[in-house]
Amino acid sequence: MSTRRLSPRAVSAAALQYLLLGLLAFLMVFPFLWMASTSLKSFGEAFAYPPTLLPRAWRWSNYGEIFNAMPMTRFLLNSCKITGLTVLGMLLSCSMAAFALARLEFPGKRLLFASTLATLMVPYQVTLIPVFILFQYLGWKDTHYPLWVPAFFGGAFGVFLLRQFFIGVPKDLYEAALVDGSTPGGILFRIYLPLAKPALTTLGVFTFMASWNDLLNPLIYIDTLEKMPLTAGLSFLQTQYGSDWPLMMAGAMISILPILAIFFVAQRAFIQGIATAGLKG
Question: pLDDT at residue 1 above 50?
Answer without folding.
Answer: no
